[in-house]
Amino acid sequence: MQLLVSQLLNGVGLGMIYFLVAVGLTLIFGVMRFVNFAHGVFYLLGAYGVLTLSEHGANFFVAVVGSIALVMIFALVLERGVLSRVYELPPFFHILSTFGVTLMVEEAVRTFWTAAPHRVPTPPGFRGLATLGPFFYPNYRLVVIAIAMVCAVALWVFLERTRYGATIRAGAEHRETVRLLGIDVARLFSFNFVLGAGLAALAGALVSPIRGVDPNMGLEALAIAFVVCVVGGLGSFRGALVAALLVGIMQSLATSLWGSGASLVAYLVMMLVLLVKPQGLFAGPGRSTS
Amino acid sequence: MISQLTGRFRTVAIYILALCCLPFAMPSVPLATEIVIMTLATLSCHLLLAYGPLLSFGQGAFFGIGAYIGGLYALHVGSSPFGGAGTALLIGGAGTAIAALAVGMVALRRIAGLGGHGVGGVTFLMLTFAVAQVAYFAAYNIPQVTGGENGLLNIPRLPVGVPGLPGLPLESAGAFYLFCAVVLGLVVLLVDLFVNSTVGQAFRAIGENEQRASAIGYNVFVLRLALFVMSGAIAGIAGVLYGMFLGLVPLSAIDLTQSERIVIMTALGGTGSLLGALLGTICFVLGSDLLSKIWPHWPFALGAAIVLVVFFARGGVLGLIENLLRAVTGKPSQGRSV
Amino acid sequence: MTRIALSRRTLLRSAAAVSIGSLASPAILRSALAAEPDVPICGAWEMTAPGIANTAALCDRGSRLAVETLAKPLGITCSYSTIDTEGDPGKGVRKVAEQINQRGGKFFVGGASSAVALAVSKEVSKSGGIYVTTGGADELTGTECAKSTFRWPVATYGAVEGTVRPLRERLPAAKRWFTITPKYVFGDALLSNTQRVLAETGAEHVGNAYHGLAEREFSGYLTDALAAKPDVLCLHSFSGQTIDVLRQAAEFGLKDKMTILVVWSAGLDQYRAMGAELLDGVYVGAQYWHGVDAPVNRELVTLFRKTFNSPPTYSEVSGYMLARLIMEGAAKAKSNDPAKMIAAMEGLRYEGPTGSEEIRPFDHQCIKDYYLLRGKAPKAMADADDFLEVLASIRAFQDRDKAGCTAI
User: Is C50–A116 a contact, with Cβ atoms under 8 angstroms apart?
Assistant: First the structure.
């Protein structure tokens, strides 16, 4: 029973992290029709930001906030300076340009921090195990799940209950109309992009004590993010949440049943879903298909 | 009529010329051979992108599958009367084509291309990405067949010839280069014929406006599937050559980086004409070889080059060369698609 | 320049060279004595491979240091160059082939990546050179052995015999063992050896969890381990994954519930990344430890501290030893002809970092010790690098009929 509970918690934790990375990507695609192959870079930099700031003595949570802020600034500069010029081009060039950016950033990381993996110590006070009767689970992982859930709720509230959130949702469904309504689309795009980057950075920052920090983590995050987005339906918040949890839980359960194949589970889930619903689980009615 | 013919086969002629010069222009014959083999792989991705228009992140999987099939054939059947480099190519290519058929049946259903600003192309991209991961996973999980992370070792370089007669040995670097060059030349010729045929024109129609092409009566799914299978087979043939070239098939032949590399070479070269595949491959293989000697952080320059291509040289190196030629000769420009 | 006394033999040789040289003019002498063999060594290392680039860089610098410091005392001229294999066996093979064909390269060291090591081993054996490798795959001196290939580190058989067996002897009551193994050929080799030793020592293998190559998230496997209630958690993971498994194991409280053994570790750089608190009480197997009290090791540690301000890591020492073996071969054969050097290297006995070492003639495997160490409590550490204490030092290799090498 402990095994099942642990695996479910692992799955939920994993899923929430996947959600944080994927939701930004799905909103970026939904609103801007922009395929952001550089999304993993924000996750990567979020983790390295925490590493550097805590090495300079900052408290862990301060380092997390600081790192997110820095990544968001970087994302803004990237979007305004480089990527906004690529929007009108066919998607192939979105992929290519963001891929190029990824290569540059990853190599820069390897240059300044070396290719060796680094560790970020778990924040003191959150080490150790939480116990509830016969069950136990690491404190810090529970904190990660809690923070991710709070963010998910906050994001939902923002999208569903605020005007700006409504604009974003409208943009995801009918971009041209939004433009015709006189809304500053460029600002909308920038905001959306930076928001997505910040969420990915948060995910990277939060997982850094769990999995360590290394230059390859960006690609891993990107791969999962794309799987989650495609399974959930590109552009859908709900889809990202459900798909992320589905993939996370399936992956966790797989470690007990098919250990060596656990990392493949995400792709198998994706292929299965796409066979039945090629647009993803939650593709909206107003979505154009070509 | 002659001028029409030479104009018609201009691309093929340039390829043949380049292949003749390559071993002398490159620092070493093995490097030239590697370029030829990778050009085949790049060509497979180029075809899909130029005519699909589909971006596949999974060509590395087909490259690897071809390499393993060819390697296993050479190891187990090679010395029999039916053994031979040519047969290895056919079997490797056919095996990979079957794999591509299976993947394509799933991946191309109800998928729109990258031409429009739609979801379909991205889904196809993700599916091929997933195929690349699955292929890699499969390769290292059946070490009894593939050698796992140690690779498939001791692959003999089979002679090429007709069954029954003694074949020409390919042991020397020069002979093997010639063999690869001939294979590439033949493939380019076949592809060129295909591209300029009525089938090729059908793809142009799909590329311009998919819905309209479908309305006219083209079966988009079947056409794309055929293209995907052809592409897969070409990548598989490149893989067979790779295994013979190295004498082994490393796991890296089928990993994600292989697919990535193929996409980069396709993008660098440009998709305006088949020459793009050759140019992109030369740039990447030669460039990374030279750069890696002088700067350990050369992937940074590669990333920058790709971004620059997007901004200033969307037609890739081919586009740059064409612009240059146009500027020099003063000829008017021709419209070029992605 | 630091003078290193490596052994009585080399001391005598350098003394003789000094005394003879002082008697006669160099020009006449050089024609009277045989010319010093020239041994240019090429290091084929994974300098830009993601994941092992830092290991390869350490190995490379170890090899370079050996070439710089040992040539004179051994009476040979030696130079060193580096090729970047990029971690790709295909690239590695091509670049090594170019070195052989265009620059007459004959002497190679390398192999931070086993896959590259196997490929390069095949390429070098085609041309009849010498390749000394630090690759971990058993096959290098096993089923894929070659006359031109030599290997310094111990294979999986020795690693498991050097850790699992002594631990069984130290903790006879700890009979329930759970293993976590990466699904690699290498991981499986470790696993089968462990299963054999456990069976031979009357222990119970209560379960194994396989994990994938690029796995970072081990909570699932650790939960499985917990559920099996073992006495010992035996980790077959290697390189970057070892750190992640161990750290997550500590997070899930496994250190308090069971003994943990890391069969294959990467050395001081890895221990630094883990940290003393994590290593405390954990049993670790290693090819080399700078704290071992052997004469050559003490010299080596002094040299490295002087040159790099740090005691040597295993990677550096293995790079050093690879180059040293070639140089010793040339010195003993008084020639740079690969065939003569290979004959000289077979059966070569010398003082190495783990004590007396020798190269076994039938498979070119170096016979040396493998260590079982245990993490010290942070308070008990003498300095920032004093992570481990040595518990056992064991030499174990398979016999000729089991080793699988038939090509030499």
Answer: no
Chain A, 111 to 130: residues with Cβ < 8 Å from chain B are 111
Nearest CA in chain A to C217: A211
Q: Give this complex's ipTM.
A: 0.87
pLDDT in tens, B103-121: 998 888 766 555 444 556 7
Any A CB within 8 A of C211 CB: yes
What pLDDT sits at residue A129?
86
**Quick one: which of B71, B70, B40, B79 has its CA closest to B159?**
B79
> What is the rounded distance in angstroms from the CA atom of residue B92 to the CA atom of residue B187?
15
**Window C:7-36, CB contacts with B under 8 Å:** none
CATH number of C8-154+292-367: 3.40.50.2300, 3.30.420.40, 3.20.20.70, 3.30.950.10?
3.40.50.2300
Nearest chain A Cα to B57, which residue? Answer: A95
Whole-angstrom distance, CA of residue C159 vs CA of residue C265:
10
Q: What per-residue string of b and e applies to C108-123 under the rule 16 or more CB within 10 Å gives b?
A: bbbbbbbbbbbbbbbb
pLDDT under 50 in chain A at which residues? 285-290
CATH annotation of C158-288+370-403: 3.40.50.2300
Contact of A7 with chain C, judged by CB distance below 8 Å, is answered with yes
Q: Count the neighbouring beta carbons within 10 Å of the beta carbon of residue C332.
A: 17
CB < 8 Å to C186, chain B: 149
Find residue C356's DSSP bridge partners: C351
Helix or strand or coil: residue C177?
A: strand
Beta bridge partners of A130: A137
From first to last of its 408 residues, chain C has per-residue pLDDT tens of 333 334 444 444 444 444 444 444 444 444 445 578 899 999 999 988 877 888 999 999 999 999 999 999 999 999 999 999 989 999 999 999 999 998 999 999 999 999 999 999 999 999 989 999 999 999 999 999 999 999 999 999 999 999 999 999 999 999 999 999 998 899 999 999 999 999 999 999 999 999 887 788 888 899 889 889 999 999 999 888 899 899 999 988 899 999 999 999 999 999 998 889 999 999 999 999 999 999 999 999 999 999 999 999 999 999 999 999 999 999 999 999 999 999 999 999 999 999 999 999 999 999 999 999 999 999 999 999 999 999 999 999 998 888 889 888
- Report the alpha-carbon distance of residue B204 to residue B199 in Å, rounded: 9
> Which positions in chain B touch C183 (Cβ < 8 Å)?
140-141
Q: How far is C44 from chain B (nearest CA, A)?
A: 13
Pick among B119, B209, B265, B297 to test the A interface (most A CBs inside 10 A): B119
Which residues in chain C are contacts of B242 at CB distance < 8 A?
90
Identical fold between C8-154+292-367 and C158-288+370-403: yes
> Prior bond to B53 cis, omega within 30?
yes
Domain ranges of chain B: 11-256
CB proximity list for A106: less than 8 A, separation 6 or greater: A41, A44, A215, A218, A219, B299
Distance CA A290, CA A288 (A): 6
pTM for this model (two decimals):
0.89
The Cα B39–Cα B118 span in angstroms is 30
Nearest to B306 by CA among B265, B255, B273: B265
Q: Give the pLDDT confidence of A47-68 residue by residue, as tens digits.
A: 999 999 999 988 999 999 999 9
Q: Do A255 and C248 touch (CB under 8 A)?
A: no
Look up residue C402 and give its two tokens.
């089991």
For chain A positions 220-249, those within 8 Å of chain C (CB to CB) are 220
> Looking at chain C, which residue has its C-alpha nearest residue B146?
C185
* Cβ separation A212–C217 shorter than 8 A: no
